[in-house]
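Figure 2 data, in text form.
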Amino acid sequence: MRTQDIRRTIVVATLLAIGSCRGGCRRGAEADRALTVQGRLALFPATARMVAGIDANQLRASAAAAKVQALAAESQADQKDLDEFKRRTGFDPLKQIESLTVAFPESARDSGDFGLLLRADHFDEARLIAYARDELQKKGDDLNSTKRGRLTLWSSRKDPSVVGFFVDDRTFVLGAGGWGARMADLVNNVNPGDSAATNLELVHLVERAAGKHTIWGAAIVPDETRKSLAMRPDVQEAGTINTLSAAIDFGKGLEAVLIADTATPDAASALARKVTEALRDAKRDPRVLMFGLGPYLGGIGARADGKTFEVRATLGPEAVDNLVSQLAAALSLARGGAAPGFAPPAPPP
């Protein structure tokens, strides 16, 4: 796919995932519900097994995000596309998006099903629809509408399997495969028992993963995945993992945690031991040493607590700055620039 096509895809996807969460900015019962686990899961079908989210407000408040955003703005082509999008829609995704939540079923790879819920502070539906239609028509496509209850479902003529709809002036939902119609039915209160919010295992898992974290994810590991892992001698213990959750936070630096719930305490201990050994070996790897990555691994540790296996990683602000600098060089190379000063990352102090 060409770079120009990728940018257009991102812009259209941003549009079709635009919603708002004044619930993230306003007080009140309705706002609070949007921030609860049930509120996050309410519009996803009960077949959801993997859920991830981003708190855009917290992300924007971090120093690392500001630096990465500045890197993105260095591309004149990307900035031009963004400025044009803002001018025609009145919406600035970099400033106005509040949160994003995405979910997948176990069969996502085969069915193509997934759902996305985006919240922001405001958008103009008419201008956004007009923009999407115009962009699609430039590519020989068009935007079609279908009524479903009180909702208007939007999809491209060439790919009707991807459906987007505005719930209200604050929330937009995107569904692919069969999930678009099912999510619309949940909004219309048709078959509410089909909601992922009725899956208590997933609700509790998301509650642990999301919390007040900036970036988070949770998954009920599919049986087929566990069976496949159990047949591999090198990662046999991973076949005992029933659920996974992860979170990333940005303060002055970066903190990340991965938690796995296994079938037995022995499996959790074995996984912690294998990760610790792998980290030890990686620190001695010539390739790791050549790129100066060894010291970064010093902030990673693994431990077991009963049936729970946990990996934590911490990077200080200087280390994060170094990584952002390398990202800048990589972006410059990807854009065809000279990437002056590109060098292996400096080790953290």
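Caption note: The chain has two domains: 1-210, 221-349.
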